[in-house]
Amino acid sequence: MTHFASSHLAATELVALFKDELQLCQVKEGERVVLHSDSGTRGAYGAAFMGAAMALGADVFQIVHPSAPEKAVVEVWKRADLVIDLSSGVHAYGDIIKEALLAGTRILRVASPEHVLRRLLPSEEMRKRVEAGAKIMKAGKKLRITSAHGTDLTLHKEDRDALGLYSIADSPGRWDIWPSGMVCCAPIEDKGEGVLVIGPGDMMLVLQLYVREPVHMEIRDGCITSIKGGLEADLLNEWFRKFNDPNAYRLAHVGWGCERRADWLKPGQDNECYYGNMQIAFGANVGVFVQGRTRSRAHHDFPCRYHSYCVDDKQVMEQGEFVVDELRYKGD
Ligand SMILES: [Fe+2]
Q1: In the chain, at which end, N or C, are there fewer CB atoms within 10 A of the end residue's CB?
Q2: Domain with CATH 3.90.1640.30 in the chain
Q3: Cα 282 to ligand 1 centre (Å)
Q4: Which residues are CB-neighbours of 300 under 8 A, at least 6 positions away?
């Protein structure tokens, strides 16, 4: 359950925290900062970011939108230097994000509870590991992912970019989410084959369910062609079916987690960025991944542990443990 602060005074304790974050995002005097919110946004977040941006001399204003923003505000996003995306729904995949990023806008998504933001503050040490990982992934053409539970996937990245997320949107056209700590990419959507096994204890993020009985998915030409297993597989089949959209089953993104402070037992961003995880997602990927091609209302992330990972012939992970020195956490 989401807990919202009941008093507007909650903002007072957030101003200093958000000012630090805006400084990391390189907000300078006179820059245009847009706070994008909707009817479900935590009110204290908008107020505190506004105070923090004002303290830095930025030209800041807040948009409150009733539902999906899209066309009505895309021009505002494109003309902003930095958008703080405070919307309450899933908001990483859509043309508004793609267009704004291509226009050079920096976008930072902030939607986690305050205690999660404080626990997973941006870290320079993690940033280095994320950037080292993104460099390896960017150079790769093919990804091979395996696990003791039976995952054996070959995905084709070819010349697509890699995205390194470290909770800071500090350069033009950069999207990030606080908290994060991930290296990922959008593989070629109509290629990729093999078997994905979501093992016991792995997470079906949209359903907020830890799997008990393994879920076996067959992937052909970049699409899930079958989902088999027990109760979780049945629920997942039901979730996919309700979209009535072939694109729901299509590969969206794949990567690994880098945040060693993330707690696997806290469902949400903690699973997404968990140190040494393998995350894979299906459905929409236009937006954050500007080279992505899939539009859909569906998007489902599966953070999984104990996987092995190869980028071309270079092994980066063995059963959830990084085997490349520069990707491994060695202390702050
Ligand atoms: Fe995702």
Answers
A1: N
A2: 8-111
A3: 8
A4: 204, 205, 206, 207, 236, 239, 240, 248, 281, 282, 283
Pick the CATH number of 8-111 from 3.90.1640.30, 2.70.50.60, 3.30.200.20, 1.20.1250.20: 3.90.1640.30
Phi, psi of 179 (to 5 degrees): -90, 155
Ligand 1 centroid – CA 197 distance (Å): 18
For the whole model, what pTM was predicted?
0.94
Q: Token pair 């990567």 is at which residue?
A: 255
Q: Calculate how far, in angstroms, residue 300's C-alpha sits from the geometric centre of ligand 1.
A: 6
Query: 10-residue block means of pLDDT along the chain (332 residues)?
Result: 62 95 98 93 94 98 78 89 90 85 97 95 97 98 98 98 98 98 98 98 96 98 98 98 98 98 96 98 95 95 98 97 97 76
**Helix, strand, or coil here: 159?**
coil
Give 4's contacts (C-beta < 8 A, 6+ positions apart). 42, 43
User: Distance from the CA of 209 to the center of ligand 1, in angstroms?
Assistant: 16
Q: How far apart are CA 25 and CA 7, in angstroms?
A: 28
Å from CA of 51 to ligand 1 middle: 31
Query: Which residues sit opposite 82 in a β-bridge?
Result: 33, 106
277 alpha carbon – ligand 1 mean position (Å): 14
300 DSSP β-pair partners: 282
